[in-house]
Fold:
Amino acid sequence: MRAAGRSAAAVLDRLCAMVEPGISTWDIDEMGGEIMKDMGIKSACKGYRSGNRIFPSYTCLSVNEEIVHGIGIKDRILQEGDVISVDVCIREEGFVGDNCRTVAVGEVSPEVARLLRVTEESLYLGLVNALHKNRVGDISSAVQKHVEKEGFAVITNFVGHGVGRTLHEDPQIPNFGRAGTGVQLRKGMAICIEPMVNTKSSGVRMAKDGWTALAEDNLPSAHFEHTLLVDEGTPEIVTLPPGYHHATKFLKARLEQLSLNIDLDC
Ligand code: MF3
Ligand code: CO
Structure:
């Protein structure tokens, strides 16, 4: 899980660095495929089956009102002021690493910047509740409370998940719910926490391509995700960005940038 997580994070970092006005989601996805090939790893998205549909891209690239599971498209050209969620899940030596970040294309409006910040913050607030003997609802409720306090809406149609030899395992990790309820977490469990947040309302509709989930309010949507291992203190984030080796160091640095105060149990 550590190796898979590290690789997933490295690919995500490279792809986020490519984001700029004028590039297409196809270009980003193709580069994702090439980087994975060079690293000797496989996409866990490409070929993913849902009923009789097969996901066609190496990565999920969701622009603006697209929430999740967007497909790389040649004429989807990024423009100044857009946001794009770059979701990378890979398989390495039989294990899956899954992570996502929403990044701004050039300069975005203050309200959109706030949406990205609050969604990322809600991920960390959920994450520090992923403690041995806590319950899934402790994560869910921490995410939901923060998002709603800031006036945004959590998606209920899609959820985080357990992860391991396959991408989606039990338990589900919803971004809404009550503290103290749900499955009990245990040290060593591998889970993905992934808040998906809409600007106004949580309604979702499906695009004609059968994959892309769209925000019903047609406003920008954000998505941040890490794969982590539950522990007695701060969980071990296996998808730390390159250059970071300890979850607490990363969280401290990032929380300071976001000016969010969370007590870290180191
Ligand atoms: N991070 C996404 C998820 O956990 C990755 C989906 S891959 C896809 O749902 F193939 F299902 F799109
Ligand atoms: Co996921």
Remarks:
- Residues 2-257 form a domain with the Creatine Amidinohydrolase fold (CATH 3.90.230.10).
- The first strand starts at residue 42 and ends at 43.
- The CA atoms of residues 109 and 248 lie 31 Å apart.
- The chain has a mean pLDDT of 97.
